[in-house]
Design brief:
Elements (H helix, E strand, L loop, with lengths): L1 E6 L3 H11 L5 E7 L2 H11 L3 E5 L7 H11 L4 E6 L4 H9 L4 E4 L3 H13 L4 E2 L5 H8 L5
Parallel strand pairs: 1-2, 1-3, 3-4, 4-5, 5-6
Length: about 140
């Protein structure tokens, strides 16, 4: 069973992710946070296998939190869960050390697939993003 930390400043997103995961016993939500600062703290305290984290949050952004978490735990898998599909943000995400980039409008259909891929040491990018761009963006970082 893989333990997941859900981080999003909107409670309904956290509830939605939890609702999707409840039908899959191989995934356990160990905690939730509504900001990047708490995400960093909970990641250190709880040592989840996977962190699903929003990009845009008040205070410490998801990218900043990912960099901090990655610095203290190089083994944790981080999937950014976001509405933003800009190429620059995707590039910045993988530079920050994330293992996956999941668009929120793909989450209901793709969440379990994304989790399975990153836990299996792969890299995940939402299918709505340009596949060739994503491949070329991810390659230099070896995530």
């Amino acid at each position: 069973m893989s333990r997941i930390l859900i981080v999003d400043d909107h409670a309904f997103i956290r509830r939605g992710v939890r609702g999707i995961l409840q039908d899959f016993p191989e995934w356990e939500v160990c905690a939730e946070a509504d900001n990047g600062k708490d995400a960093v703290r909970l990641a250190e305290e709880l040592k989840p296998e996977v962190i699903l984290m929003d990009v845009s949050m008040p205070g410490i952004t998801g990218l900043e939190a990912a960099r901090s978490i990655r610095g203290s735990d190089p083994h944790v898998k981080i999937i950014l869960l976001t509405l933003h599909d800009s190429r620059e943000l995707v590039r910045s995400a993988f530079q920050s050390g994330v293992n996956g980039y999941l668009l929120k409008n793909d989450a209901e259909q793709e969440l379990i697939r994304a989790l399975t891929i990153v836990v299996g040491h792969g890299t995940y990018v939402s299918p709505k993003l340009d596949a060739e761009f994503a491949k070329n963006t991810i390659a230099p970082y070896g995530n």
